[in-house]
Amino acid sequence: MKILVTGMNGQLARSLAARAQGGGIELVLAGRPELDLENPLTFAPILKSVAPHMVINAAAHTGVDQQEDEPQRAFRINAEAPAELARLTRLAAIPIIQVSTDYVFDGKSSEPYVESDGPNPQTVYGRSKLAGEQAVRSENPDHLAVRTAWVFSRYGRNFVKTILSAAQKRKRLQVVVDQFGNPTEAHDLADGLLAAARFWRDHQGFPQGLYHLAGQGRASWYEVARQVLEVSKAMGGPIAEVEPIVSDQWVAKALRPANSELNSERFANDFGYSAGDWPDRVSCVVGNLIKDSVIGQDTQEADRVSVAPQFSKPTDEAV
Ligand SMILES: NC(=O)c1ccc[n+]([C@@H]2O[C@H](COP(=O)([O-])OP(=O)(O)OC[C@H]3O[C@@H](n4cnc5c(N)ncnc54)[C@H](OP(=O)(O)O)[C@@H]3O)[C@@H](O)[C@H]2O)c1
């Protein structure tokens, strides 16, 4: 089975590439400029030349604060492009998996969100990703929309790497303590999507269209930062104190949900896959980054928190 994956340099695409080896799935990764979500004219030629059996759209505009200033671009990349990709996959009679986000919710629930909960996005990012889900659903019935959250990995830009990088430069960090979610290791997300792809291969369809898939366990950004720094200290990596602050003390353009915990039971029931516990996964990623001496690579955001990625929560004083 051949799968075309967009966003080839992103955390998810790189994790899919790492995990798909063997197992009868061939991945073809594509990225800019050959496949540019802002240029729909690039879609058909790549679909024609690769001739995949499935598309996974792992590309997105993920700069949450940046998008508040460029909503049209956000909608082009996160909504209109998935719509066109879905339309082309329907014409080619193949399925598409669209990856979406916990930010479709307003974060006011005290319970983990299930798929039937009503979305109410509070940011341009959340609105554009919700529009992307809806467009994919209407353009290609043979689709899956998988919402995930707080993605981290050894690749690219993410909160875990930001904390490590910041701890190399500062002795004291401040991190938000009153926002909660499910930290998700990108390889776990990749494994889940590959399980869904294999399900489609074996059954020629998906059971349902909308799923949540996130790491096990609830955490605040503060708890994640503490875990990162504890493991780092134990492994001889960067050390810093971490001080809890509330959201009001952290100025950002986009409003983050207070609680975006996702219930991933439907995914586990239908595809037989659950992501790992977040503390284990954070420990593993931090341990590997320190062992491989790659802290600070791919983490430009640590010096530019005004354009921090969506899930970097430290204050601009702290990181
Ligand atoms: N990261 C999270 O915490 C998180 C949380 C919830 C949901 N998600 C969703 O999960 C999916 C994967 O996220 P991720 O963490 O892997 O994101 P990521 O590391 O930020 O990667 C996104 C990729 O999209 C590519 N991209 C951006 N604009 C593009 C365009 N116009 N044309 C083609 N490619 C473009 C980027 O390319 P360049 O490398 O060239 O910039 C990058 O490779 C996305 O749908 C995201 O919305 C992520």
TrEMBL record:
Its cofactor is Mg(2+). Residues 1-286 form the RmlD-like substrate binding domain. The keyword Chaperone does not apply. The keyword Chloroplast does not apply. Pathway: Carbohydrate biosynthesis; dTDP-L-rhamnose biosynthesis. GO terms for biological process: dTDP-rhamnose biosynthetic process. Binds 1 Mg(2+) ion per monomer. SUPFAM superfamilies: NAD(P)-binding Rossmann-fold domains. Its EC number is 1.1.1.133. Catalyzes the reduction of dTDP-6-deoxy-L-lyxo-4-hexulose to yield dTDP-L-rhamnose. Belongs to the dTDP-4-dehydrorhamnose reductase family. NCBIfam families: rmlD (TIGR01214). This is dTDP-4-dehydrorhamnose reductase. It comes from Pseudaminobacter soli. The gene is rfbD.
